[in-house]
Amino acid sequence: MAGRDIKLTLPDGLAREAEAKGLLTPDALERLLRDELRRRRVNQLFEASDRLAEISGPPPTEEEVEAEIQAARKARRATNARRR
Fold first, then answer.
1. What secondary structure letter does DSSP report for 8?
2. Distance in angstroms (rounded) separating the CA atoms of residues 42 and 6
3. Domain presence at residue 5
4. pTM score above 0.85
């Protein structure tokens, strides 16, 4: 797996505490970032659900739902491609 080196500047107290808790290792940082990304994706789903609930009028057609699904998949593929 290809990687990327990053430089992280933290306040001394935070850095000491995070290091003491084992949070500054590559594995721990990767886990924290993946968890945060997952949390944000879930939040986006809830936000989309809230927006859908606010829409007045007839429910979307099957074609409209399919178009939304395809658009979401395309956006996810683009996001995944940028990560690589």
1. -
2. 26
3. no
4. no
